[in-house]
User: Fold this.
Amino acid sequence: MSKTATSPRYRILFVCMGNICRSPMAAVVTSALAQREGLGALLETDAAGTHGHYHAGEAPDPRARKVGAKRGYDLSRMRARRVIAADFDRFDRILAMDHENMANLLRLCPEESRAKLGMFLDYVPDLGVSDVPDPYYGAESGFERVLDLCELAARGLLAACEHGQLAR
Assistant:
């Protein structure tokens, strides 16, 4: 994919199941932290779901919006959508929130784009956790935990972007 002088250096897609909890939180947190650190022009983020048709067009879960707002993240503009074939060409990295969604991405992804796939929490290697848990059926505290994980992984991802170490 060719990039112009005005386009971001990296385009990153975050993927969960329904695209109303984890992946929009990851996209907004990563984008907001990039802006705060003066790296906003470095990347573009988006979110999608492997089963996005369940919630297509919906705003993120109200609990996600609430816990995000408490920390200064505005999820109100996000809308759920499903991963589409064009995403595998458009994005430089496609990061799954858990292994189940990674398996779904592997089924959808053309062979030539598989190197773009990864796990979001791989950017926090010493964490000892590889999946961002789905908070949908739990309490608000689950959304707080997801936000904590997103902030940690986003910082690692931004460091990789800044140092040109983001695998493509």
Q: What stands out?
A: The helical segments are 22-36, 62-70, 87-90, 99-108, 140-162. Residues 8 and 51 are 28 Å apart (CA to CA).
